[in-house]
Amino acid sequence: MYPNWNKGVIFVRVAFFSDVHGNELALDAVLHDIREMGCDKVYMLGDICFRGYAPKACLDKVMDVADVVVRGNADEWIVRGVREGEVPPERLDVMNGERAFALHQLTTEDVRQLNDLPTTCESLDPDLDSTWLAFHATPDDTFAIVPEGVSDSVIEQSIIGSYPHKLFFYGHIHIPYVRRIGDRTIVNIGSVGMPFDGIAQASYAIVDNSRFDTQIHLRRIPYDVEAACKRYDEVGYPLATAMANVLRTARPL
To answer: Could you say which residues form the signal peptide (predicted)?
Structure first.
């Protein structure tokens, strides 16, 4: 159904979601909402499997529904492991143990798919009001951290740069927000499977774009958090208790 035509005006409804982290129940809730909202295109901005109880199921569902999937830092960890200097030293072995849990469920082809993902996707459609660029953390680095409260100059340097796009979408920090800097708009779409803003609901974004207008909607979708917490125990996850607490509190470890 892409694009939609209404009296000669193109109208496109696009969904962006990110940071599933193997939380299948949260992913199912978001995918159901995307279908209910009638989205024309779906873009996934990375971190599909790592740190979750259902890495294989989430990867399969994401690949089935998303028009484009970009690579996140946690996808890179699945492919090549967590390296020294990327996490606190005391967490290195534990996090590589979490990687091993995911790899036990994934196939060689699954890992190849993750390795082959692009790092950005974009729309430069001249028939729509706003062009956009989407990525996991920054356009040039899947690991860089750009918090919601940094200065305009930091965002201009690390995200906007010389790109001509009007909208910029990213995930990675697990905290949704919309921020305008001049004629540019920066959107963090939050996290589907592991929000860090104290709201224990899945987060994603819908963008309605026509020739004359662009509207951004950050959506919060409830799901059965307690059932997800139990899944960690049921599958024998290495950090089951800690991860359940992350889901319940919607705060990082």
So the answer is: none
- Please give the Cα distance from 210 to 5 (Å, whole number): 10
Q: Is the pTM of this model over 0.90?
A: yes
**pLDDT per residue as tens digits for the range 13-70:** 999 999 999 999 999 999 999 999 999 999 999 999 999 999 999 999 999 999 999 9
Which residues are registered as beta bridge partners of 179?
186
Strand ranges, E, within 59-118: 68-69
How many angstroms separate the CA atoms of 205 and 64, rounded? 19
The CATH code belonging to domain 11-224 is: 3.60.21.10
Whole-angstrom CA distances from 193 to 24, 220, 235 are 8, 12, 17
- What are the angstrom distances between the C-alpha of 51 and each of 35, 169, 202? 26, 23, 16
User: Which tokens hold the place of 107?
Assistant: 């196939």
Per-domain residue ranges of the chain = 11-224
Quick check: 44 and 62 in contact, CB under 8 A? yes
For residue 102, the one-letter residue type is A
Residue type, 141: D
